[in-house]
Design brief:
Helix content is 16%, strand content 43%. It is α+β, with helices and mostly antiparallel strands. It has one domain. A five-stranded antiparallel β-sheet has the order 1-2-3-4-5.
Length: 88
């Protein structure tokens, strides 16, 4: 099994697998850059909403455009050979 594959459980209790590209922390907040196993061409930024005391992590897809711009630039700096294009 690939160590970079992470499984998320949706609100509908469905399992969705993502491949983790990178993880970063910005202002104390953890973000993941990942793509769906079913769609390798589209990457997503996920934000960790869980507390340190939570047994499981809770993530949401980042939707705030300003936050997406900031975090995507951080991921571009970390991943020298990656350019992130934002969709409208």
């Amino acid at each position: 099994m690939d160590n970079n594959i992470i499984t998320f459980i949706t609100e509908d209790n469905e399992e969705v697998e993502f491949v983790l590209i990178e993880q970063t922390k910005l202002n104390g907040q953890t973000y993941l850059l990942a793509y769906s196993v079913e769609d390798e061409e589209t990457a997503y930024i996920l934000k960790d909403l869980s507390d340190e005391t939570d047994e499981t992590s809770v993530y949401e897809f980042l939707e705030d455009e300003e936050e997406i711009m900031i975090v995507s630039k951080v991921f571009e700096e970390i991943l020298d050979d990656v350019s992130i294009e934002l969709e409208d």
